[in-house]
Design goal:
The structure holds two protein chains of two kinds. By secondary structure, chain A is α/β, with parallel strands linked by helices. Chain A has 14 helices and 15 strands. Chain A has three domains: about 1-35, no CATH class; about 40-145 and about 270-335, Periplasmic binding protein-like II (D-Maltodextrin-Binding Protein, domain 2), CATH 3.40.190.10; about 145-270 and about 355-375, D-Maltodextrin-Binding Protein, domain 2. In chain A, the strands form four sheets. In chain A, strands 3, 4, 5, 8, 14 and 15 form a six-stranded mixed sheet that branches. The radius of gyration of chain A is 25 Å and the shape is globular. Chain B is mainly alpha-helical. In chain B, about 70% of the residues lie in helices and about 0% in strands. Chain B has helices at about 10-35, 55-60, 60-95, 100-110, 115-130, 135-140, 150-175, 180-190, 195-220, 225-230, 240-245, 250-275, and strands at about 40, 45. The longest helix of chain B is centred in the N-terminal third of the chain and has 35 residues, at about 60-95. Chain B is globular. Chain B starts with 8 loop residues before the first helix and ends in a 9-residue tail after the last helix. Classes of the chains: A alpha/beta, B mainly alpha. Chains A and B meet through helix 3, strand 11, helix 7 and helix 14 of A and helix 3 and helix 11 of B.
Chain lengths: ~375, ~290
């Protein structure tokens, strides 16, 4: 750089400019090479699935970076994907009951069943999960699940009171019963309470009317409708003493922090949420996405999933459960993931006390949502 | 020249950016919203159509009108409370404080806006919870605990968090510009303090006060955070209804109907308020 002695101003000489330009030009390949080496994987998922406790080790080992977009609820997931151009999401975590919708709409790629450990599943149902296959073609791979029932504050409700959805009507809980703000699990629970059991989603007009009536009778007990954060806070600070529409996926995380909360599967039965990975249609990263899904089904991935900081879930493979019991026996015990324990999740399924979450069969989702809005306004 | 339109390039150059901005980011989206309210959703996908089914469905639902009435009521109540609570503070700052004190006060009132509204809202959890700070203090004098979160009270607190500093600032600025000799004259002529406020200060501050109240109403009417996080969604306001509508079945067209109804309400309220603010009293010279 040259200085004009008269004006005291700096003038850039051609040599300076060339030097600067040369430096930039020489360093560009290194910069672009560094960028090129890290592959970004766009993920659409529930909160927590793209966080370091789950994907950190995989990112490091494979030099990839997950870019998560989080949603709350299957409808919300479908809405987000429908608004995005094809290929926006490389990997989609879907609630199992929405996989069929994703497939019908052409949002997901076919998968090769030979790539995944179907022979290691803890339950036979997990190998041919409803909606995940179209004939013999696999479209989605189940990775975790959890059970929904009565979630409660153990200082306000006894285990016996929580052993039925009727516990929500306990007079002392007036104004202290919260709802996770999504009609599907809440109305499913009310359907179970009405004795619809395995047909909880397949309601005739009369049964649907009865479910609405039963739900409406709970309204005076209700203290609020919450999203994930609000549900978490409500249970943690004791504002809500019982919560409808959730399960161990919320109370488990709080329980690990020492909060006096628990979830049980009541005598009327519980609902299983099931999460499955799909490969987004049009992605050019199908190979690395497949490797990631395989990782999540490996013992290490299954253990991380069971320990997930955002919300815990059950391991679905035998090897995954075995590793969880080895590395974190306390969590395995807390979540009953030990053979022979009371409320062991696979035994609950075998006993017919668990029903897989689904969408309404005889009504539309809009009908259920309309009622939910009426209920909130009541 | 009078009566002739003159094409002023200089003026147009300076006006053009704001005109373009408004066209692109206000008029365009509003038109688009009106258009999609006529679309239909099939298999979670919005399909182009020209049907009034969404309007018919939303406007015939009782829960829509319940939400509408509640939102109108709680936003009006919040604006009224904000204006009343702000007045003593604004009065003090306008007439009692020195210029330097007023400047500092306005600066301090602006500081909350440096923090995210969501963060400010969540911080109320610590204060309003049954095991929170406020109930602990009330407990010392043998009161409570009171349920404040997930109530209408919680919603109002959230709205006031958003609007109260603004109301104080706007009222202060308005009253600080009143010619103080008029107030002194009123007092010298025997006008009592409250009569001075009612007959001198308020009429002179009318425009500023109506604008302040209007801002408070608009902010509360469209706010999602306070009724959702502090009010526990009960009862749901219109912004919550928009979210509920989009969450289920990707019903953006129905959400657009709710949004258009909200905008129509805000336009009506705003134009009425502005007309009131600038109305010349009977007998007064324009």
């Amino acid at each position: 750089m040259a200085k004009d002695p008269k004006s005291n101003q700096k003038h850039y000489l051609r040599r300076d400019v060339l030097r600067l330009g040369g430096g930039v030009a020489l360093s560009t390949p290194f910069v672009s090479r560094a960028w090129a080496q890290t592959t970004e994987i766009n993920m659409l998922a529930w909160y927590g699935h793209g966080e370091p406790d789950i994907v950190g080790a995989f990112e490091e080992a494979n030099n990839v970076k997950f870019v998560p977009k989080y949603y709350a609820g299957g409808d919300n997931m479908l809405a987000l994907i429908a608004q995005s151009p094809p290929g926006t999401y490389d990997i989609i975590l879907s609630d199992a009951e929405f996989v069929q919708q994703l497939n019908l709409a052409g949002y997901i790629e076919e998968m090769d069943a030979n790539d995944y450990p179907f022979d290691d599943m803890l339950h036979e149902d997990f190998t041919k999960f409803p909606g995940h296959w179209d004939g013999d073609t696999l479209f989605s791979m189940m990775v975790r699940c959890g059970h929904l029932g009565v979630s409660y504050n153990t200082t306000a409700m006894s285990a016996e009171e929580a052993s039925s959805y009727d516990g929500f009507w306990k007079p002392e809980l007036a104004g202290k019963v919260g709802h996770f703000d999504w009609h599907l699990p809440n109305l499913g629970m009310m359907s179970l309470l009405n004795g619809n059991s395995a047909g909880l989603w397949d309601l005739s007009d009369d049964q649907w009317a009865a479910v609405q009536e039963k739900t409406m009778s709970l309204r005076t007990q209700v203290g609020g409708f919450f999203d994930y954060g609000g549900t978490f806070n409500g249970m943690k600070n004791g504002e809500m003493l019982a919560m409808c529409g959730i399960g161990d996926w919320i109370t488990g995380a709080l329980e690990r922090d020492g909060a006096p909360v628990a979830s049980v599967i009541p005598k009327e039965g519980g609902i299983q949420w099931t999460e499955s990975y799909c490969i987004g249609k049009g992605t050019d990263k199908a190979d690395i996405v497949k490797t990631f899904i395989q990782y999540m089904l490996s013992p290490e991935g299954q253990t991380k999933s069971a320990q997930m900081l955002a919300y815990p879930g059950f391991a679905i493979t035998k090897a995954g459960r075995a590793m969880l019991q080895d590395v974190d026996p306390a969590e395995a015990k807390r979540s009953h993931q030990i053979d022979g324990m009371v409320n062991e999740p696979i035994a609950l399924i075998d006993d017919g006390r668990i029903h897989y979450r689904d969408i309404p069969q005889q009504q539309s989702l809009e009908d259920w949502n309309d009622f939910w809005s009426e209920y909130k306004n009541a | 020249m009078k009566g002739q339109l003159k094409f002023d390039v200089y003026a147009l150059t300076w006006r053009l950016p704001i005109i373009l901005w408004q066209l692109l980011f206000f008029v365009g989206p509003v038109v688009y919203m009106i258009v999609i309210s006529l679309f239909v959703v099939k298999n979670y996908r919005m399909t182009e159509a020209f049907e009034l089914v969404n309007w018919a469905r939303m406007l015939t639902r009782g829960y829509f009108w319940d939400s509408y009435a509640y939102t109108l009521f709680i936003a009006s109540l919040s604006a009224t409370i904000a204006m009343v609570v702000a007045f003593p503070a604004a009065w003090t700052l306008a007439f009692r404080a020195t210029e330097a004190q007023r400047r500092w006060a306005v600066f301090l009132l602006i500081i909350p806006f440096f923090t995210s509204y969501l963060v400010r809202t969540f911080s109320w959890y610590v204060i309003l919870a049954e095991s929170g700070v406020l109930n602990a203090m009330l407990g010392y004098v043998g009161l409570g605990p009171f349920k404040m979160l997930n109530t209408h009270f919680g919603t109002l607190i959230g709205y006031l968090t958003l609007t109260l500093p603004l109301a104080v600032i706007l009222q202060t600025v308005t009253m600080a510009n009143i010619d103080k000799t008029l107030i002194e004259a009123a007092r010298n002529l025997g006008c009592k303090p409250f009569a001075t406020i009612w007959r001198v200060v308020l009429p002179l501050s009318k425009t500023g006060f109506i604008v302040a109240a209007l801002f408070c109403f608009i902010l509360a009417f469209g706010d999602f955070v306070a009724p959702f996080y502090l009010g526990g969604s009960q009862e749901p306001t219109l912004p919550i209804l928009i979210l509920d509508t989009t969450k289920s079945g990707q019903q953006w067209p129905r959400a657009a109907v709710v949004a258009i109804m909200m905008m129509a309400t805000l336009f009506t309220v705003a134009f009425t308020a502005i007309a009131l603010a600038y109305r010349t009293p009977k007998g007064a010279k324009a």
